[in-house]
From TrEMBL:
Signal peptide range in chain numbering: none
Annotated Pfam families: GFO_IDH_MocA (PF01408), GFO_IDH_MocA_C3 (PF22725)
Residue ranges occupied by any Gfo/Idh/MocA-like oxidoreductase N-terminal domain in the UniProt entry: 7-122
UniProt protein name: Gfo/Idh/MocA family protein
Domain of life: Bacteria
Source species of the chain: Kineococcus mangrovi
Domain called GFO/IDH/MocA-like oxidoreductase: residue spans: 134-254
């Protein structure tokens, strides 16, 4: 920490999302954003001027600015080497999603984390809004009943021109398709809320876009807790929506938004009839908000409402800075995101091998452990993804 007890931070990769990190750090009086770095020195200098930080020529120069935490905001394929280099320079890392482009890289970072003093946290901002925190707590406590059925949708629209940049639309540039790059936000939240997944039965389809991977993926998922879910990710959906719906023995919990939710985007529909709920063995019951008079009972969801914190970078960075300064563990660790990367890996393995993939199949012997195309040729991938 700096002399006045603030956290000294840096940012690597000075493109689009670095601006969200820069704004979140600037808004937090406990933080000093001191240094930035980019392979393009022009990009680094113009971002440094914007945020009032020093532009550094290398990761070593950045670490020499006595930073304790560095946001890695570079393209996915560069995350692993950049993060390992920063760990070896003695700093902690806030790594943008997707943490890596395969499980092998994720395990390389985990080994570097083990061998060095710093820690790695991953940006999954939708875990950090007040709605997801309430949902996570109430589901874990059983207060909303037991999850039985879930739907997880990332229905977005990207025109052909979106894939014009050379690095887009191909395995080499992106590491994976929209399941890795776009749907992963909703998939991570679904898994965060429902716990251990067990099997994935998926189809990845290339319906319309000029890409090497899918533009639509659908999957059936089972969970250790007994729930089943369907997961759809599409880049062909003009009315865009990001949605998670969880039907429990006590009611329906739902969040519908696009790139970030507030409390108003969440809803809870309790079983309408308490007798029916009781016969399911899990009456969600009624609860009174603290201090509310008798007769002012509300359902458990309403009764748990507190400060409305939207799910954005500021929400996660606020939590992370507070945890680091207080010496508390921060929950969104690299390890906590491995189930999400395992799910993404299983989806591609299932779709490209045409079988149900069990969590236990994801060993280093599986080709998909090292690359999400499973080492298949472009023709083999095309054959599988475009077969009708
Ligand atoms: N959490 C979110 O909601 C969210 C939203 C958008 C993007 N992202 C993620 O943020 C990351 C960056 O995406 P972006 O849209 O800002 O990309 P971008 O192309 O706008 O910016 C990336 C920057 O990194 C620089 N760069 C590339 N390789 C580098 C290296 N090895 N070392 C240093 N700098 C390097 C580039 O010059 C560029 O300035 C990706 O992982 C992406 O998935 C997350």
């Amino acid at each position: 920490m700096s002399g006045d007890g603030n956290l000294r931070v840096g940012i690597v990769g000075c493109g689009g999302i670095a601006r969200s990190h820069g704004r979140a750090y600037a808004a937090d009086p406990r933080v000093e954003l001191v240094a930035v770095h980019d392979v393009s020195s022009a990009a680094a200098q113009s971002f440094a001027d914007e945020v009032g930080a020093t532009a550094c020529d290398s990761l070593a120069d950045l670490a020499a600015q006595d930073v304790q935490l560095v946001s890695v905001c570079t393209p996915p394929g560069t995350h692993t080497d950049t993060t390992i280099a920063l760990l070896e320079l003695g700093v902690s890392v806030l790594l943008e999603k997707p943490p890596t482009v395969n499980l092998a890289d994720m395990d390389r970072i985990a080994r570097a984390e083990e061998a060095n003093p710093g820690a790695v946290f991953v940006v999954f901002q939708h875990r950090h809004g007040s709605g997801a925190k309430r949902a996570h707590r109430l589901l874990a406590d059983g207060a909303l009943g037991a999850p039985q059925v879930a739907v997880c949708e990332t229905l977005w629209y990207r025109p052909e021109s979106y894939f014009d940049p050379e690095w887009r639309g191909n395995w080499a540039g992106e590491g994976g398709g929209p399941t890795l790059g776009h749907g992963i936000h909703q998939i991570d939240l679904l898994l965060h809320l429902l716990g251990e997944w067990t099997t994935v039965d998926a189809r990845a389809s290339r319906v319309a876009r000029p890409v090497e991977f899918e533009d639509v993926a659908t999957a059936s998922v089972t969970f250790a807790g007994g729930a089943v879910a369907s997961v759809t990710t599409s880049l062909l959906s003009p009315r865009e929506v990001s949605r998670i719906r969880i039907d429990t023995t006590g009611g329906t919990l739902e969040v519908e938004h696009l790139y970030g939710y507030a409390d108003a985007d969440w809803s809870w529909f309790p079983l309408p009839d308490a007798g029916t709920a009781a016969s399911n063995g899990a009456d969600p019951g009624l609860a009174r908000a603290p201090g509310a008079p008798e007769g002012a009972e509300q359902d458990v969801w309403r009764a748990s409402a507190g400060e409305d914190v939207p799910s954005n970078h500021a929400a996660q960075i606020h939590d992370l800075v507070g945890d680091l300064l207080a010496g508390r563990p921060h929950p969104t660790t690299l390890a906590s995101t491995r189930p999400t990367m395992e799910f993404v890996t299983a989806l591609y393995a299932s779709a490209l091998q045409g079988r149900v993939v069990d969590r236990g199949d994801l060993t280093p012997d599986l080709p998909f452990y090292r690359s999400l195309d499973g080492g298949l040729s472009a023709e083999q991938v095309s054959d599988r993804m475009t077969r009708v």
